[in-house]
Amino acid sequence: MMDESRRSFLKETGWAALGLGCGFPLLTTACGDSSAQEESVGQAGASRQWAMVVDIEKCMEEEIRDACITACHRAHNVPDISDPEDEVKWIWSEEYQNVFPDQVHTNTASKIRQAPVLILCNHCDSPPCVRVCPTQATWKRDEDGIVMMDMHRCIGCRYCIAACPYGSRSFNWRDPQDFIERDTNGEYYSDYPTRTKGVVEKCNFCAERLREGLQPACVEAVNQVDGGAGALVFGDLGEPDSEVNQILGERLTIARRVGLGTGPNVYYIV
Amino acid sequence: MSDKPKIVAGLTLFLALVAFPVWYTLGGESEVAAPELEYPSDADVCVEDTEYMTANHMDLLNQWRNAVVREGRREYVAASGERYVMSLTGTCLDCHTSRDEFCTRCHDYANVEPKCWDCHVDPGETE
Amino acid sequence: MLQNAFTGGKRYWFLLGFWGLLILGGVVAYGQQLSEGLHITGMNRDVTWGLYISQFTFLVGVAASAVMVVLPYYLHNYKAFGKMVILGEFLAVSAVLMCMLFVFVDMGQPTRVMNVILHPTPNSVMFWDFMVLFGYLLLNLVIGAVTFDAERKGAPPPQWVKPLIYLSIPWAVSIHTVTAFLYSGLEARPFWMTAIMGPRFLASAFASGPSLLILLALVLRRFTKFDPGKEPIQKLATIVVYAMTINVFFVGVELFTSLYSDMPHHLHHFEYLFTGLHGYHALTPWMWTGEALTVLALVFLYIPKIRRQEKYLAALCVAVVAAIWIEKGLAMVVTGFIPSPLGRITEYSPTVPEIGITVGIYALGFFVLTLLYRIVVSVRERIQVV
């Protein structure tokens, strides 16, 4: 049996080690790391809210939808996993009755019920995914309203997926690098960083293209298809004369599940 | 104590095992050469000087990552006053075109596996 | 005091060895999950939380239930619980440990777990869940160790532990309420977004936890010299009866809201559970078994003559734990995802590696529990307080 003084020394050393172990990270956090919600420097105080308007009727054309989905998934090296249980998708089409369940009644014609509608992350005003993320790996940017993902910080807890009422988010159940589409030279279509297994991903409104002054990949792609011009319109709600504001002012538009209070920024012309 | 021989034997064995890396390589015969890096031919200077980069490239990359992803800033002002776009694929790999001839050599030697390539694209490599 | 864990009979070592084998199996399976990713589980794009998170939910309840012995003993001087309190506290330690492990193995990037501490996010309920669970673990470890050490020395516990004990009472309630809040604040999941989630969690916890405690006390009495006496076991049984009754009442009120309003939003989930939805019915046999166990257990527990016979009580406690495990550890989490936000039904069933990891974690929890209970029993045998 150990004698009491050696025992208490060991106990005290143990407590000290625990205290140091817990104390250092707290100290370094308090003194170091800047908050994710900081305004970004040098954006000239711009307060935008990017938004997208989808023309449902124009997007009924399969060629237009395919062009947009392919462009997005190639531009971001989104893996093409055929098993729907593991698939990763940023933009895709679903049936109208599943996209707008509150807009269909028992006598809605089946051709309307089954009409294909493009859906993607809505970059909500009050995003529930951001509210629940325990590490701020996803957050809403102050400068342009994009709900971003930080792939370095995501711990893969999938709470954001549970919280998203739109099914916009995908988890990497396996290493995506084996499933990314390659071009004829066997290279990735884009230099955009792939993701790794264990993180969540979703549409990012092409933040990396917006920063270069380009339109999102999907918008650019549909504009190059016959009859696709205007199928997707992208712009800044904060700019009164933007095309999105014009459309919203003149046409009848709906958004997904507005009753939930999330404030989606993807609108649909019916 | 009747256990003394056992304890001494055990301690000796333990010390021998723990000191293995030291006495095994004492002969000098299995010295591994320092890694030889292939430097890019078309540029003289990196973002910062070599000594700084060797010691701090990981911190620099972390800084860049936070700036680009979380703060929306893209431009880095180096100690020399030169401005660079903060991008691993776009800036670093623009000059250091082959990660096998550069990054991997030191990292293999130091036995530290960088996680960058789990995600970041190396334009020169086709796997 | 800890050295008592190193002494024991053949059965003790055999038990530890058995747990050890299961833990090893879990470790191997987890290694596979780490290298291949979570696709080796049964989870999918629609059902993104499965067995791991549902076990975490069930075990948080077990951990919180320690308050059912702590509160009467410390706050109301109910002396009869004297020998049971330490068992409850150590059960809480083991349960919280398992909870934290289940969350850990569920993470896609477990090496980044410290991000939750390095980047505290007060608006996230999950952040608070990490904090309160860790705090509860520390609380129960300290309280258990200090009070039991004092008992071993034959002295009253030091004064400074008293406020910690009082703190552990609302803290126990908080861990399960915070866990309920993980679910009940999500507008995306109508099955979970109900104010009664918190009260239901607590009621089912206070039925399943004390049932487990009764079973553990009976096991200890059977295999060691430990004997708490009849009174604390009967008192715990009374608590189980009340808690289970309240739990059934809560399930009833939930069913009423969904069935009477006839709203598809709410109804669909219960339909899926009890009758199947659009041909999908993987959980219906489980649900009906659970309800049968619940009714049977309650009916017989109401009868004092049966409740007082410990062999029947043991069987009924098993039924209660099983029923609540089906409710929380199986049905609740998965059903939140069925149907998905886009109206799809993708069913979930755990895979072999997933079950292997789950069993491994349970074995680890029981391993720790065996060690802790061994210490309690052997110290008490020596000071002759068994």
- How many structural domains can be distinguished in the coordinates of chain B? 2
What does the average pLDDT of chain B come to? 85
Low-pLDDT regions of chain B: none
DSSP helical segment count of chain B: 5
Order of helices and strands of chain B: HHHEEHH
Q: If strands are numbered along the chain, what order do they take across the biggest sheet of chain A?
A: 8-1-10-9
What fraction of residues of chain A sit in β-strands? 5-15%
Overall tally of structural domains of chain A: 1
The biggest beta sheet of chain B reads: 2 strands, antiparallel
Helical residues, percent of chain A: 25-40%
> In order across it, which strands form the biggest sheet of chain B?
1-2
Give the topology string of chain A: H per helix, E per strand.
HEHEHHEHEEHEEHHEHEE
Major pleated sheet of chain A: 4 strands, mixed
| Distance separating the two termini of chain B | 64 Å
**Mean pLDDT rating of chain A:** 90
- Can you tell me the CATH class of chain A? Alpha Beta
State the shape of chain A.
Answer: elongated
Question: Structural class of the secondary elements of chain B?
Answer: mainly alpha
Structural class of chain A: alpha+beta
Alpha-carbon Rg of chain A, integer: 23 Å
Radius of gyration of chain B: 22 Å
What this model shows, in words?
The complex is a heterotrimer of chains A (270), B (127) and C (386). With 270 residues, chain A is α+β, with helices and mostly antiparallel strands. Chain A has one domain (46-269): 2-Layer Sandwich (Alpha-Beta Plaits). Helix content of chain A is 29%, strand content 14%. Chain A contains nine helices and ten strands. Chain A has a four-stranded mixed sheet with strand order 8-1-10-9. In chain A, strands 2-3 form a two-stranded antiparallel ribbon. In chain A, helix 2 packs antiparallel against helix 8 (217-223). Chain A starts with a helix and ends with a strand. By secondary structure, chain B is mostly helical. Chain B contains five helices and two strands, in the order αααββαα. Chain B has two domains: 1-31, no CATH class; 35-118, no CATH class. Chain C has helices at residues 10-36, 51-64, 67-76, 85-106, 115-118, 125-153, 161-184, 197-223, 230-261, 264-274, 284-301, 304-307, 310-335, 352-383. Chain C is an all-alpha fold and 386 residues long. Chain C has 14 helices and no strands. The longest helix of chain C has 32 residues, at 230-261. Chains A and C meet through helix 1, helix 3, helix 5, helix 6 and strand 6 of A and helix 5 and helix 6 of C.
